[in-house]
């Protein structure tokens, strides 16, 4: 069955309609969020963590659907690099997602699901909604915004469009715009979803969800998050054990190779917690993201009002999705407006997913910049 929105997530209803880059307004917007640590009396110790495409607000707490630890629990918590003994950490589910914030699976004014009638959204729309959340929480200025991948896009967008709202920006493994290759990988995933007979033009709520298409989309995307060296080390060409006989080939289309089984597991597990229409909308928002285009075609102009904001940018040497060259382009734009910026390329074997995994050097960078 298509997964329904869970009603008991912590959320705030935005009091006014949210203007969107498309020119439309979205009324009755709910933003689901989690907080960690205490807000001090001066209300100046807040950090906003932006999540990536398949992430959510449960950055450092047990996920209510999967029972797994928060997606960045190793980074956020008492005594950790983002220290909740010192800072009040906020993480919100992005607009268009499916973990409590308003998205395609939400009910519209008529009580029906939006489905594909949900308006097209952008990364800037997501950030605009999160700034409205801060307003509702009574927080004017953030100590820092932090994000990796799509979360890094949001962090950069926040600095470009709401520079007065944050003192520091930590953007990890991200980019100022998608390449044609990035867009192509996303389109493969979207087409897999839309080719699933259960998608039914997006009107699958209340029936069978397009889990096969969503699973394939997740598999294709997951390949881009890994490095060739990491895949080779973890799986190589090793075969699955069959009937107690390791290395026996079936000479068919079962999952003979370990890497095949791994990808299939990733795809199937993903369908238990994510909505296919949300995947369509969020990947499209990422593809539309282009900070330079938003500011007259020159990336430096995007940061013209952020020269007093401190920046730290981090890339990984094995990340071929958002490369070090992509990050350097942002560094050069910040240099052009004399914004204080530090940049480091870290060595890690895990590819794009390195920001989520055990890379002690990243811990040191985050701790040093934040604290």
UniProtKB/TrEMBL annotation:
Keywords: Acyltransferase, Amino-acid biosynthesis, Cytoplasm, Methionine biosynthesis, Transferase. One of its GO terms (molecular function) is homoserine O-acetyltransferase activity. The keyword Iron does not apply. It catalyses: L-homoserine + acetyl-CoA = O-acetyl-L-homoserine + CoA. It is found in: Cytoplasm. Gene3D superfamilies: 1.10.1740.110, alpha/beta hydrolase. One of its GO terms (cellular component) is cytoplasm. One of its GO terms (biological process) is homoserine metabolic process. It is an enzyme of class 2 (transferase). Pathway: Amino-acid biosynthesis; L-methionine biosynthesis via de novo pathway; O-acetyl-L-homoserine from L-homoserine: step 1/1. Its EC number is 2.3.1.31. HAMAP family: MetX_acyltransf. Homodimer. Transfers an acetyl group from acetyl-CoA to L-homoserine, forming acetyl-L-homoserine. This is Homoserine O-acetyltransferase. It comes from Aurantiacibacter aquimixticola.
């Amino acid at each position: 069955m298509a997964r329904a929105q869970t009603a008991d997530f912590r959320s705030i209803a935005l009091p006014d309609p949210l203007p969107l880059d498309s020119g439309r307004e979205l009324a009755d917007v709910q933003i689901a969020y989690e907080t960690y640590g205490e807000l001090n009396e001066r209300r100046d110790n807040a950090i906003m963590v932006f999540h990536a495409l398949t992430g959510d607000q449960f950055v450092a707490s047990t996920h209510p659907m999967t029972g797994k630890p928060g997606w960045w629990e190793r980074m956020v918590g008492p005594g950790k690099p983002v220290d909740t003994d010192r800072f009040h950490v906020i993480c919100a589910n992005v607009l268009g997602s499916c973990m409590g914030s308003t998205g395609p699976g939400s009910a519209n004014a008529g009580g029906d699901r939006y489905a594909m009638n949900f308006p097209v959204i952008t990364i800037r729309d997501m950030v605009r909604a999160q700034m409205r959340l801060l307003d509702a929480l009574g927080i004017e200025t953030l100590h820092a915004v932090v994000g990796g991948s799509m979360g890094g896009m949001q962090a950069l967008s926040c600095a470009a469009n709401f520079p007065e709202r944050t003192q520091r920006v930590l953007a990890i493994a991200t980019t100022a715009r998608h390449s044609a290759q990035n867009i192509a990988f996303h389109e493969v995933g979207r087409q897999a979803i839309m080719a699933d007979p259960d998608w039914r033009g997006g009107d699958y709520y209340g029936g069978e969800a397009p889990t096969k298409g969503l699973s394939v989309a997740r598999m294709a995307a997951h390949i881009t998050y890994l490095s060739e060296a990491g895949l080779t080390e973890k799986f190589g060409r090793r075969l699955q054990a069959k009937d107690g006989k390791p290395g026996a080939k079936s000479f068919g289309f079962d999952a003979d190779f370990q890497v095949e089984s791994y990808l299939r597991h990733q795809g199937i597990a993903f369908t238990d917690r994510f909505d296919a229409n949300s995947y369509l909308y969020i990947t499209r928002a990422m593809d539309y993201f282009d900070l330079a285009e938003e500011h007259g075609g020159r990336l430096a102009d995007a940061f013209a009002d952020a020269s007093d904001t401190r920046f730290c940018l981090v890339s990984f040497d094995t990340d071929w999705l958002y490369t070090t060259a992509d990050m350097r382009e942002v560094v050069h734009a910040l240099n052009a407006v004399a914004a204080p910026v530090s940049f480091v390329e870290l060595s890690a074997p895990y590819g794009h997913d390195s920001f989520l995994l055990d890379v002690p050097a990243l811990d040191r960078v985050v701790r040093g910049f934040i604290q």
